[in-house]
Amino acid sequence: MHVQESPYQIFFKLFIVFVIGFLLGYWLDYIWPILFFISLVFIGWHYKQLHSLANWLWHSKTISPPESLGLWGRIFDGLNKKIRKLRKRQKKLTEQIRQYRDGAEALPDGAVILSSDLVIIWANSKALNLIGIRYPSDVGQRIDNLIRYPAFVDYLLKGDYQEPCTIPSTIDSNIQLEMRLMPYGSEQFLLLARDISQIYRMETMRRDFVANVSHELKTPLTVVRGYIEMFEMSSDELNSMWKKAFTTMEGQITRMDNLVEQLLQLSHVESTQQNSALQTIMMPMLLASLIDDAQWLNKNKQHHITSHIDETLAILGNESEIKSACTNLIANAIHYTPKAGKIAITWQKIAGNAVFSVADNGVGIKAEHLHRLTERFYRVDTSRSRDTGGSGLGLAIVKHVLQRHNATLDISSEWGKGSTFTITFKQPPIILSE
Ligand code: ADP
Q1: Atom 4 (ligand 1): residue with closest C-alpha?
Q2: Which 8-state DSSP code applies to residue 119?
């Protein structure tokens, strides 16, 4: 390390050298040649320092600049200090990056960093085992060039990454992957691929089990119902206790029948993701027949049912599924509204979307239940739901049907005042000519 000299000291040293040169020149009677010689030595020395600096910058492999004296020594020391500082910072950054990468490697999921235009920047080693993405050889490729499942490509194009998408692995189709894209860093994305084969298998088993049991229950129920009806036909020979018993039995069999029917419906709508049988649904006609049916359901409660139907509005979908969703909402409004209530059914185009809604002035639902209503078997008041013959499956069916139709269900309700269930179809509506 060189001693730091002030500009004054440097100038003073220079001055002394020239004064000595001048005196020597005066004494030898060679003033100008000696001063010229001293200047030449100075220029030569500076040139040598510049040369060794340039040499070090371009050719040297050492990180320390060359040694020197005076001002040059200070310049080289300064450079040395700066380089060491930068090296230290670089080392720290490298260490941090290594820690992040180690963290990403330790993840049980495949992780891929993508640029804003979905080009691969980095991937961990699990990404290779799960989705076949190699780092660094796949860097620079678009992710949808390597994973071409339509469900995944649609997911990328949709731009809504709130929910993950499920696809089979590109390496082993027995592995089911949950792909989740999330914003990361500045204008980048992190793609996580999680192996959910186990959960998927359990879900499939659960669905199959429910579907099979429900299916198997149908025959015994039909047989039991047949016998009960037989006994009821000969009810004249039965005493009042048995008559009551058979009526109760029939009621319970009807309940079980409905439950089995709903379980089968739910298994059906859960088992396929995409809706294959899309057709134009003439909603005005469908709703007219549903409202007619509702009048029959309504005969005990005597609600005032009004409807406001846009006769020109149709949608694409699976008619029996949409019918089931709308029927569930109308039936709930009838069941959960005390006698002589008001029910309004509407089918309208609102903000460019086809919207179906059922509003009632019935018992309403407390806010804390609203987010759980579409869970299977969830019932707000089990005793009341049992009275209405409810199973807690109706809204779960509605939810699954709507998922398959790119539609949403909004529920607004006030405890004791009534509820409004609104279905918004997020597809361009079809306008029928009148
Ligand atoms: P359930 O077969 O019990 O009617 P749903 O899934 O159709 O099952 O509904 C779940 C719960 O939501 C019901 O048990 C009921 O408590 C509540 N609910 C549904 N619709 C209404 C409504 N229109 N008014 C008040 N509560 C409702």
Answers
A1: 390
A2: B
Cα(394) to centroid of ligand 1, in Å? 8
Domain 107-195 has CATH 3.40.190.10: no
Q: Where are the domains of the chain?
A: 7-100, 107-195, 200-271, 279-431
pTM to 2 decimals?
0.69
Parallel, antiparallel, or unpaired for β 430-431 and 313-317? antiparallel
Mutate to test the pocket of ligand 1, among 373, 376, 378 (most ligand atoms within 8 A of CB): 373
Q: Which amino acid is at 210?
A: V
Do 122 and 193 touch, CB atoms closer than 8 A?
A: no
Distance (Å, whole) CA 57 – CA 52: 9
Domain spanning 200-271 has what CATH number?
Answer: 1.10.287.130
Strands lying side by side in the sheet with 353-360: 304-309, 342-350, 353-360, 418-425, 407-414
Residue range 111-146, pLDDT digits in tens: 999 999 999 999 998 999 899 999 889 999 999 999
Q: What is the mean pLDDT of residues 300-308?
A: 94
Count how many Cα atoms sit within 13 Å of the Cα of residue 148 in the half-sphere of its side chain.
3
Per-residue pLDDT tens for 223-243? 999 998 888 887 777 788 888
Adjacent-strand bridge partners of 113: 122, 190
Count the Cβ atoms, other than its own, within 10 Å of residue 290.
18
Those residues with Cβ within 8 angstroms of residue 377's Cβ, 6 or more apart along the chain or in another chain: 391, 392, 393, 396
Instruction: Name the residue of 265, 329, 336 to mutate for ligand 1: max ligand atoms within 8 A of Cβ.
Output: 336
pLDDT given at position 409:
96
Amino acid occupying residue 323: K
Q: What is the pLDDT of residue 385?
A: 55
Q: How remote is the CA of residue 127 from the centroid of ligand 1, in Å? A: 44
Are 343 and 303 in contact by the 8 Å Cβ rule? The answer is: yes
Amino acid at 248: T
d(CA 338, ligand 1 centre) in Å: 14
**Is the CATH number 3.30.565.10 carried by domain 279-431?**
yes
CA distance 405 to 354: 12
Q: At what angle do helices 31-58 and 7-28 cross, to 10 degrees?
A: 140
Is 362 touching ligand 1 by the criterion CB < 6 Å?
A: yes
